[in-house]
């Protein structure tokens, strides 16, 4: 069971942003910007392109709705989307509010983000979902 499956199951706490029967969105615990959100399928699949076509399409549409909520919560030019997936063997999409392309730099993370601020950010995004 991956760490993301444990988060989805509620075994590990998360800052949940959105959820439906197939997908779960929560704040990245090492965000590159405030509002950095991960969108994951509840189905445990390592590589995003191993998802069947229907699930991949539904995941993308769910991520689009989460991105719209992020954009409302954090005024930005766009919400960037990245698929990396090397650290956790569970398919996921990163959504990051962008004012410039440099905001998508995964080498620069917010150090030790305040839990109260993380909760505020998650609640703010969720309120726009």
Share of residues in strands: 15-25%
Task: Provide the structure class.
Answer: alpha+beta
Helical amount among residues, as a percent range? 25-40%
In terms of per-residue confidence, which ranges show pLDDT below 50 for 5 or more consecutive residues? none
Physical arrangement of strands within the biggest beta sheet: 1-2-3-5-4
Concise account of the structure shown:
It contains 3 helices and 5 strands, in the order αβββαββα. With 129 residues, the protein is α+β, with helices and mostly antiparallel strands.
Topology readout:
Blueprint: H1 3-9, E1 16-19, E2 23-27, E3 37-41, H2 53-73, E4 78-82, E5 93-98, H3 115-128
Antiparallel strand pairs: 1-2, 2-3, 3-5, 4-5
Helix pairs in contact: 2-3
Can you walk through the features of this model?
It is a single chain. The termini are far apart. With 129 residues, the chain is an alpha+beta fold. It has a five-stranded antiparallel sheet with strand order 1-2-3-5-4. It has three helices and five strands. A hairpin with a 3-residue loop joins strand 1 and strand 2 (23-27). The model has no long low-confidence stretch (mean pLDDT 95). The chain has helices at residues 3-9, 53-73, 115-128; strands spanning 16-19, 23-27, 37-41, 78-82, 93-98.
């Amino acid at each position: 069971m991956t760490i993301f499956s444990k988060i989805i199951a509620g075994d590990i706490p998360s800052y949940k942003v959105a959820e439906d029967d197939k997908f779960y969105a929560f704040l990245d615990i090492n965000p590159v910007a405030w509002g950095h959100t991960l969108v994951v399928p509840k189905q445990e699949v390592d590589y995003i392109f191993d998802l069947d076509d229907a699930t991949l399409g539904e995941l993308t549409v769910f991520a689009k709705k989460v991105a719209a909520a992020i954009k409302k919560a954090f005024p930005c030019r766009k919400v960037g989307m990245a698929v990396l997936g090397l650290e956790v063997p569970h398919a996921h999409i990163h959504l990051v509010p962008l004012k410039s392309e440099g905001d998508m730099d995964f080498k620069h993370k917010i150090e030790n983000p305040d839990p109260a601020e993380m909760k505020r950010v998650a609640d703010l995004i969720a309120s726009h979902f």
